[in-house]
Amino acid sequence: YREAWDKDKTQISIPSDTPVMLQSKVNALNISNKHYQKAWDEAKAKSYDIRADAIPIKHAKASRDIASEYKYKETHEKQKGHYIGCRTAQEDPKLSWAARAMALQNDRMYRKAYHDSKAQVHIPVDALSVQAAKECQTLVSDVDYRQYLHQWTCLPDQNDVIHAKKAYDLQSDNVYKSDLEWLRGVGWLTEGSVDVVKAKKAQEILNDRLYRTRPDEVKFTSITDAPDVVQAKINALQLSDVR
Question: Where does the sequence pass through the membrane (predicted)?
């Protein structure tokens, strides 16, 4: 693929003073690392003498010491094992705060005062708060709430019993529907009902066969000498391709 180009590129000659060649030389100088370090290499060849107490040297040493991880941790490594922080745990604010938080979260210490004093409290049996608590317990007790009353014995001819029976009969669904029991199981034909008759009438109204009569079913005799028939014959003769 590149054989023709490899042969032609050795035979092309471009003048060295063309703008493209000049621009390429300038670009080569700008990109060249050797040209970039030329002044530094020449200065090194001439040798130089920098004093140890020069400001740039001191600045470089200080920057190196600051950036050095060893120098950064040197003071900490020397003081490790020689500094405790506080003489006692009570003097350390963090340890005191942790102990206080642990004591507040401790359930045993939270209930210690209550367990110590609950056996020493004496409440009179007839105290107002105790009586109120007993009455509330009686009210909310499920046993007393569901206690069945004794069985009453009433005479069947009492007015209230007769009135209750009549009220039950009025509210009874069986008594309310008792007049329809004789219809249960009785057969019934839908022919002649209102809905069936209405559907038939609607079908007759929507029936296209009854609404429209076909032309072939209508009996009629056309007059041959009528004006419209004569005109139709003349038009047919004029439009006939055979004629």
Answer: none
Q: How many CB atoms lie within 10 A of CB 95?
A: 14
214 in any annotated domain: no
DSSP states of 105-121 as a string? H-HHHHTHHHHHHGGG-
**Full-model pTM:** 0.19
For residue 144, name the pLDDT band (cuts at 50, 70, 90). Answer: low
DSSP run (H or E) holding 210 = helix 208-211
Query: CB within 8 A of 160, min separation 6: which ones?
Result: 154
- Domain, as residue range, for 109: 61-114
Query: Cα–Cα distance between 192 and 116 in angstroms, integer?
Result: 95
Cβ–Cβ under 8 Å, residues 103 and 109? yes
- State how many domains the chain has: 1
